[in-house]
Amino acid sequence: MSHDKPAARPRRRGVYLLPNLLTTGCLFSGFYAIISAIDGNFERAGMAIFAAMIFDTLDGRVARLTSTESAFGKEYDSLADMVSFGVAPALVTYQWGVARIAEYGSVWGRIGWLAAFFYAACAALRLARFNVRVTSDKRYFEGLPSPAAAAVVSAFIWSSSGWREPGLPGLVLAFTVTACAGAFMVSRFSYYSFKQVNLVGPVRFATFLIVPLIFIAIAVYPPVALLALFGGYALWGALHGIYRRLRRAQRPVAPSGNPPV
Fold this sequence. Notes:
This protein is mostly helical. The protein has helices spanning 17-38, 42-65, 71-101, 106-132, 146-160, 167-185, 205-220, 222-250; strands at residues 140-142, 190-192.
């Protein structure tokens, strides 16, 4: 009598509803940010990009928790990220600043739209590198994650949308922030991924106090709080990476062999 177990039925290849529905929410939020920027409503555009970040965080976690990860979902998520965190922030910056900075000369106008395009191109390169590179250490990202870069750019424009006349210095600063966010995305700086954070385990009491304070700050004045939060994250990774490289360069080089007797 044979005791062989029946062969397991192969999993059907299909599109899982819940994680891809959340990814669609991310895509819709990015599209809505673009529409809002075209209409001149930069406050709504900033809100939409942060809504896209929430959807982007949830879709991956839901897929892992429900064991519904798929190659289709990975590709769809990457395309949605390109729209929401690559194209949308670049167009929001373009709509807010290029027409204004062009008043100071055509050269300034070209610099403005080139900075916006540079950001979009860096986002595409960052996402492509993330898709093809396999890393053993899941605790860190190589380069600033595109959602964090989008948060820096959109929060800056959102907080600056109240300026009726930002002037040339304010406009130059906006495009500098956009270009720097793009450069950080394709850099080799390491950024903590927060994937190892245990949401159900015990935490320190100080950590428990910090989290409500962050939410209170975001509720009181969202653009400035979000800019400080994600801007600090972007700068910390860059400064820490520069510090480590300087320390490595200052270390004495060990001799390759024993000196002759």
